């Protein structure tokens, strides 16, 4: 059995808020929200992939900080790993595969319809970043 491909997600934090990105593609995911990121390419570390993906998808420079505990299946050949990250420069914009971005406070984090595979990752991120149970306000 081959190892699954790692998809990195960024729990991009700024000013006590978490960035959520609404998918515009593919059609079966359009309209749902995710932590931005993408597949780790051959020869890249997950942290390098995170930096590259945020540059491509959002037009920002970011610095990975801490791995969020756990990993979550996206499908049989993909697994999601999440890192907290901080903006270094730029203002995020939906450049690729997204049509809207929202900065969410801890009280707003469940106001969006997260992709199924991102729900557990967001719960862990909320616990790690804000010291709150991720199921609050759900």
Automatic annotation (TrEMBL):
Requisite cofactors: Mg(2+)
Keywords: DNA damage, DNA repair, DNA replication, Hydrolase, Magnesium, Metal-binding, Mutator protein
Superkingdom per UniProt: Bacteria
EC primary class: hydrolase
Hydrolase keyword on record: yes
Signal sequence interval, chain numbering: none
An annotated GO BP: DNA repair
Entry keyword Metal-binding: yes
PANTHER family xrefs: 8-OXO-DGTP DIPHOSPHATASE, NUDIX HYDROLASE FAMILY PROTEIN
Homology family: Belongs to the Nudix hydrolase family.
Protein known as: 8-oxo-dGTP diphosphatase
Source organism: Streptomyces poonensis
Lineage: Bacteria, Bacillati, Actinomycetota, Actinomycetes, Kitasatosporales
